[in-house]
Design goal:
Number of strands: 0
Oligomer: single chain
Number of helices: 4
Largest sheet: none
Structural class: mainly alpha
Order of helices and strands: HHHH
Distance between the termini: 84 Å
Helix content: over 70%
Number of domains: 2
Strand content: under 5%
């Protein structure tokens, strides 16, 4: 292996390590955003989705080597992007509207169950 090949390999390793660090920082940002409860949940959703998009772009660009491909990759990625944009829109009524709200049927059922247990215990 020549010195040029060795330097080229090390530069890829360094680039991959930098991308790894960026992905770790992005993960920390999205976890911290999700743990902050004083901010409106819609802002948290936007931040978490933006960070997830940035992470996906980093993975696609570097680990899938799309950064080094020609322009035809955009034509191939068009259907994927359409589906990627349509999926959150189609799932919003089921997940997006209720994911961060504490008022879910399971919690109401649990509260009713606890209340009935307390009521039964008070009669015994």
């Amino acid at each position: 292996m020549s010195d040029h090949d060795h330097d080229h390999h090390e530069s890829h390793g360094a680039a991959y390590f930098r991308v790894f660090i960026v992905l770790c920082v992005c993960t920390a940002i999205s976890v911290l955003a999700d743990l902050v409860h004083s901010v409106d949940h819609r802002i948290v959703v936007v931040v978490v989705l933006a960070v997830a998009t940035a992470k996906a772009l980093c993975v696609m660009a570097f680990f899938m080597h799309l950064k080094f491909e020609r322009a035809w990759k955009y034509l191939l990625l068009a259907p994927t992007m359409i589906i990627a944009m349509a999926l959150p829109v189609s799932l919003r009524p089921d997940i997006g509207e209720t994911y961060y709200t504490p008022d879910v049927p399971q919690m109401r059922d649990f509260a009713e169950h606890e209340e009935s247990l307390k009521h039964l215990e008070s009669h015994h």
